[in-house]
Design goal:
mainly alpha, 2 domains, about 80% helix, globular
Amino acid sequence: MFSALELTLILLGAAVLGVVAFRMLHLPPMLGYLLVGILIGPHGLGIAAENETTSTLAEFGVVFLMFSIGLEFSLPKLSSMRRTVFGLGMAQVVLTIGATMLFDWLLAHLLPQLSDIGWRAAFALGGALTMSSTAIVSKLLTERLELESPHGRQIIGILLFQDLAVVPLLILVPALGRSSGAMWMTLALAAMKALIVLVLLLVIGQRLMRGWFISWSSAARRNCSCSTCS
């Protein structure tokens, strides 16, 4: 059993070796990260066992991933891509979930002995199938210098909507497993919490942080004596 620090160092060292090896083979470095995760994970060599330490590191990894994605995309950029994000992206998510539910319905009626998982399970499966890895795809587009190309912008628009759709799907899927009355109550409570969080982040948080950064930048410029600031 490794401590959090030891496990972090092992993960970093293995990730560096994996990336170097895949670059030498002229393969995408992202595949090196995936292979390292498979090898040292609980279903591989078992170095990173399935415990609280690994779960905590995974949560930090998701937070840093979302932070790095947020650095690349701002609200103005999202607004400029709104037709792609909320048009093409929403169509991809809705059509994938709808196609999965339709396929399950047809299979249940034509071959009932093979499939009868119900519309709720089919919805959850469709939600899982509709998701892609923003980190992997955006990294590949960046390496190929296709991030600002027409098809690259369309791909990023779809990925952005998928990222936005994760939160409601995470709320909907657990609620679908409850009774009808409890499900609607859970959805209403979750929607209220989401609205409060969005107001805090986009309205209060954004204004406070902008004011703080402007004040800090002005103070730094007044105290700086270099030729650029003066």
